[in-house]
Amino acid sequence: MIDTSQFTDKKAAYLTLGCRLNFSETSAIGKTLSDAGFRKVRAGEQADICVINTCSVTDIADKKCRQAIHKMVRNHPDAFVVVTGCYAQLKPEEIAGIEGVDLVLGANEKFDVLNFIEDLHKKGRGEVHSTAIDDVKAFHPSVSHDDRTRFFLKVQDGCDYRCSYCTIPFARGKSRNGTIADTVKIAEQAVAEGAKEIVLSGINIGDFGKSTGETFFELVQALDNVKGVERYRISSIEPNLITNEIIDFAAKSSHFVPHYHIPLQSGNNEILGLMRRRYKRELFAERITEIKRVMPDAFIGVDVIVGVRGETDEHFEDAYRFIESLPISQLHVFTYSERPGTKALEIDYTVPINVRKQRSERLHELSERKTRAFYESQIGKSAKVLWESARKGEWMHGFTDNYVRVSAPYDKSKINTIEEVVLKGFHPEEDHGMMSLDCELVHSAQ
Predict the structure, then answer these.
(1) b/e map of 197-213 (b: 16 or more CB within 10 Å)?
(2) Residue 35: exposure state from Cβ atoms within 10 A (0-12, 13-18, ≥19)
(3) How confident is the model at residue 149 (pLDDT cuts 50, 70, 90)?
(4) pLDDT digits over 24-46, tens only?
(5) Distance between CA atoms of 193 and 191, rounded to whole angstroms?
(6) Would you list the DSSP string of 341-403?
């Protein structure tokens, strides 16, 4: 048993890369360290321990993780450095060889960080503790609060799908989750801590219930009854798992907002087959049509991967036309990169890097047009905006139920409150490339 008294008032720095699930898990790790006596490092202070939670969705993600580790070591040269996350599970020895890294923890070990810290003395080389991913069975619930107003609630982990391009099953393991009852308790605690908006997060959240004999629809129904919550957002759900009953229930709910994020990955059926996706584009189109039928103002974000092996010019043009025809609001475009151990490497045709970049640019341009068109469709409508915390300045920002970004003159008293407004024209100054609408107050919603 480790004597945690040695950690009292020791300073901890955290860095999270990748998805929102990582952020909620870093929060859980941080709570473990906080309970042991650590406090979060303040600006200008040197940390005693650094925890870096990594991503490995692409080669670029791996590179960013290495750069982040090097920077953290430079900024806190005497700190005990712990690296965990997907990159750490996939390539632990690679990370252990980075100068300054002391401890590398795999998917099964990251939540037991205290058990691997005898003291905070630097090691000569990174020490690895990692379990084979097929042996990772436990589900660790977590919830995080970002620097605005949202809480991210982890409801599921892992994935049983074996898409040909993806390493997530190798990094996260099999699909698993906690019970509905336990998940509801965590949501209730988040509300007690001030959550007004909760984002349901996971790797494949529509698969919720595999390890407990429950369903995602049952979870949605249960969460809808939590008192005090204003909004739920469903972070990302597979098109073959978002059923009409979920869509119709959310349309009638006063808590689940008209905002969806649905991965398409390709708009061409042949490429979907090469990707080993579990649907054809016709099913995807049906889901979009149903959402728009019952929620005409729904914001729909879509994931797309360009340049996968086997994707010819003809495939891409066909996919582009299909995506262009959909009444969606935004594209999240990912450029394919070869990942060791994936089945996609067995596909002969390789798309040149410059062609991948060109395809990505075209889809980014399409996304810009679709987002602007969606925003234009909302001008003149009334909506409830949840104002987000921000540095004091000329403008504050918030989001409507259907994820339209809104700007207004800064007013500290309004932060983390909901106001009903009428959406006006485009705000003249885009913030970090993010468009937003001006508004006019109707009345306070609370």
Answers:
(1) bbbbbbbbbbbbbbbbe
(2) exposed
(3) confident
(4) 999 999 999 999 999 999 999 99
(5) 5
(6) T-GGGG------HHHHHHHHHHHHHHHHHHHHHHHHHHTT-EEEEEEPP--SSSEEEEEETT-
